[in-house]
Amino acid sequence: MSGSSSTRGVVAAATLVAALTLLPVLIALPAALAEGPARAAEYLFRPRIGNLLANTGLLVAVTVPAAVVLGAAAAWLVERTALPGAAWWRTLLLAPLAVPSFVSAYAWVTVAPGLTGFAGSALVTTLAYYPFVFLPVAAQLRALDPADEDAARSLGLSPAAAVMRTVLPRLRPSLSGGALLVALHLLAEYGVLEMMRFPTFTTAIMQQYAVGFSDTSGSLLASVLVGLCLLALLLELLARGRRRVARLGSGTQSRPVPHALGAWTAPAMVLLAALVAGALVVPVASVGRWLAASEGWAGLLDTGLLGATLGTVGLATLGAVAATAAALPGAWLLNRHHSGLTVALERVTFVASSLPGIVVGLGLVTLAVTWAGPLYQTVTLTVLAYAILFVPRAMVSLRSGLAAAPPELSEAARSLGTGGTGTLVRVVLPLMAPSVMTGLVLVALAVSTELTATLLLAPTGTETLALAFWREASQLDYAAAAPYAAVMIALSVPLTLLLRRQILEEK
Amino acid sequence: MTHTRRPLLAIALALPLALAACSGGQAGEEAYAPQPDTLQIYSAQHIEVTKAVAAEFTEETGIPTQVRDGQDSSMGHMIVKEGSSSPADVFLTENSPAMTLVEREGLLAPVDATALDQVRDGLAPSSRLWAPIAARSTVLVYNKDLISEQDLPSSMMELADPKWSGKWGAAPGGADFQAIAAGMLAERGESETRAWLQALADNAEVYQNNIATMKAVNAGEVPVGIMYHYYWYRDQAGDRQGSANTALHYFGGEDPGAFVSLSAGGVLASSDMPEEAQRFLEYATGPKGQRALVDSGSMEYAVGTGTNSDPALPSLEELEAPAVEVSSLNSDQVIALMTDVGIL
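^ inputs. structure came back:
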């Protein structure tokens, strides 16, 4: 009986998390209708909204497929082919995760000042976001048992057909999960698009709060964004399918035989080199160039930089722990008790993440000053905002971790007399540890680049690298911004190395 | 291979964790919570200026201060949301509309006469609920290689003419621009302002902020742009990278393009340190505070009687700014107009 009562506990926890993440949305919606439905309709049905919808839609329609194709192709080349220097490529292809997207935009704007608007936005977001697809697909490819593919080959299928029939279907969860992350990030992206002067819903919401003084219009725009997010969630649900990915069998898994690339070796290397150049070399070189300006080096020694670094590390650590802990109950339920309810609980947590930080931030400000005064302007509330914004990042990695930890192992442990807690500690957690680390790292990377929620919610005097960078970069003072960008990248390098190791060791 | 890498990786990982441990105090509640008996200043003014003035105020009076950095609108918004439980004692804005937002909500205490009496005549709002602490002038920045002085418009209103299509830049998304448009609305009325904003939506290049506008003009993307004066003077005082090819055109003649915007300072009615808050405004508008503003190199205008602004600037009187009653600036109506024409 302890099993079902503990399940009830998990359901309660997951429900609580889902409810918490919905709070900012629940606050935004009434604000949107504060001036009546007629005013709302008048506001929403006008050419400007059409333009924003077109811009946002176009960006999603181009960047998501581009990131999926590039990310998956790169993962395939690195994990399943006889690509020369695969280990190096793996590191280089993941490294862009260490470069915040707005730093990448800042670099591209300084390298190619004419590259603004849609083209620049699509380029920079694709280069910045493809690792969200590369990472889960590469991990999945390493974890997949090649036995099925071999069997398909032995039954007479061509190598390509064998891949299409046995590998591709199993990549669906990681492909669609990666695509979803890219789409949600695009919906909430602000820094890149502001720097590229490409108006979307999120930049328009920021503008509304910047000049509007009335959050009705901002909330109306946010409601449209919630609608777009729901659409993305639905599409992903359809695209993912429900295939079982975990492998259960005796003996160790064999390593797949790498596909020979032959004449495709050179084009493949060129593709990967272009990806790495655009996503890594351009930003790092630009930051280096601005650092080399005398002001930049002086900035590195500035005491403000140390304060901002400490602030960033502290908040990123707390945010990562909070978001990952919040994602656990939902991810576990989804894997072990897949039902309409558990899917709904999980999907709900994605909604707030497509909202710009300022919407979540202002919602929590309202909440705190109205009902929870002591929480106002505390680290606790700031961390809660991070958990709400970034729970999906942890959710996606935990989900794939649990998917690779077959429930039969827990059942076996149970049948051998191990209790629920014992099973968790001795069987489930060790199997999940890598994906928990991945989740922690992904959230920490996100928190360290968050701007607006931090600005609104953090205690007076809080300084982070992202805030300082944005302050300088928005004055187009690239030399003064460079030290903050450099430290953001430097801090993210170990985290990215850790992610790389997770992939390497996942079998 | 994996084993040899581990120590390196461990060090790489331990570094941020160690930093996190050191920063425990930093990120902990205690270090950042508003300190008791410390004047809480919410500042949307340029943070360097506020910090300079606050530091000298503390040195002079012994009253400790804590500054929260933000932006006009979101910070004004935030104070309204916080209502009577706001931790803020003093609110400083870059432009006055954010202050009138807080004023309309009835959240401000009247400013002591000692502070207002130190300000030049005609600048303080008739409500006397806030005090001006600095001023900035609207200007037209132009690229000297692309346009000659005699071809410049004599009024900012002329930019609405189709012949200027694609030839001017502005940053309508910012609080600065909104103040300019509110000045135009107060002076020229709704239909003229609406037509001008429509022209902006149709014909102008939109930039993120004043600095981006100036640098775009400098780079030759557009021949002219609307901005505030002080960004240009700061760049000129520095390496001139963003303004070397440009010059400023002052419209004068009480044109809407000569609008002078006021940075404002107010005391929150809910302040638990009202006397100290009033003393801060008295200091900020007084000779020492105004001197600190000028010495900070912000290149904004001093508004206190008897304090000269930076000698590089034309005097405030020479600007021939339109006479606008600052408390009448209607930012809501400006937003509505900007929304109607599709800028927002």
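Chain A touches chain B through 61 residues (CB under 8 Å). DSSP finds 23 helices and no strands in chain A.
thumbs up if we can close this ticket
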